[in-house]
Design goal:
Layout lengths: L1 H9 L1 H8 L5 H21 L2 H20 L5 H13 L4
Helix pairs in contact: 1-2, 3-4
């Protein structure tokens, strides 16, 4: 719903073109894959833990997709994660 809600503002065709822009195509594919995993785990397998893990991955993929609309946001978050997760002090 979060990605689809922007189709109301700018139109579904423009939204689809922007989703499959070369900058966003991998983030879109990962997001769609996570949505499908959530549906499979929740409705098909009925496993709560796998569903929860897939939901967290889906939220992270949506966050990464949203960062693509802000100039240099992905690079800034990547650099921040490298600095936070660096083990050398």
């Amino acid at each position: 719903m979060a990605v689809g809600s922007t189709a109301f503002v700018m139109g579904p065709l423009k939204q689809l073109r922007m989703m499959f822009d070369p900058v966003r195509v991998y983030a879109t594919a990962i997001y769609v894959g996570c949505v499908l995993l959530v549906l499979i785990f929740a409705l098909g397998i009925h496993d709560k833990l796998l569903t929860l893990i897939a939901i967290v991955c889906e939220i992270c993929a949506l966050f990464w997709y949203s960062l693509s609309y802000i100039p240099f946001a992905r690079r800034m978050v990547s650099d921040l994660m490298v600095k936070l997760c660096d083990t050398e002090l």
